[in-house]
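thought: fold this chain, then report.
action: predict
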Amino acid sequence: MPDLSIIIVNWNTRDLLGKCLRSIYDNTDGLTFEVFVIDNASRDGSVEMVRREFSQARLIRNKENFGFARGNNQGFSQAKGKYVLMLNPDTEVVDDALFKMVDYLESNQEVGAVSARFVYPDGTFQRYYRRFPTFLSMLTTWFLPRSLGHKLRPTRAYLMLDDDFEKVIEVPQPAGSCLMVRRGLFSEEDLMDEQFPIFFNDVDLCRRIYNKGKKVYVLPDATIIHHWSKGGSEEGKRSLFLSGEYFISMIDYFSKYERAVKADLLRILISLGFLIRILAFFIGYIFRIKNREELRIEASRFDIFLWRKSVFERKPLAEVER
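observation:
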């Protein structure tokens, strides 16, 4: 049994994927590990690059884009490691970060998962950590201007804006860009709930870890470079589709873990928010402040959300583990 299984779900990020894989093989000493690259029908030569330059990695090639959650489950079903790391292709491992993460899990049995300190390519700290979302924190974070919302306690607590990341710290929901979990916690189930193909799958995963009586921590001395939102398409993530997809998953998350009335109220508020923006864009279009394309995009986002026009197949919501 290897110490670690590393799962990388890729879609059209050949150059970044190459840097990610090189950083793993160059910087991971003192561990036995296996690497799975799950390619979601890339068209940029990613598959050929992996075959040519990283033949030691196990490649799973999908004929279509199955999304992040299903891709990770494909790798997880074949993973043999004691620990499993979900790693985005737009990341780079710095020094012995993965060894430190495994070592911490080995020494702290009450911990179910760990993440690393994210930095931008220039080395500055990337605050990419969250507490679990609440109805109130979603209201203050998404329905108020940033200048106001970020001054309010619910948003500051949710985004962990006042927490000290210079020390080992409990973080209920670090990003799935780099998240190492105990394989044994999920031996009889999928790693990720495929109801959340792109967004909120990491939130759901961490929630399930806590429901199993374990905690999640971030290690300040384990560093990962994160090229922020470059793992989704050729030009970064497409806001037209993904903004609607994000809010669909938000509603599904609240439907799974909260009272139905909260999910329903959020759905109404999000719809009203879209309608207000569309009206504002329409007025801007009349007075030539906005153009027709901007108005069309805003209307399309609402259409995706309202009618749940996801390109990914969604399974029924899994039962919550109590």
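thought: worth noting. Residues 239-306 form one domain.
final: tokens above.
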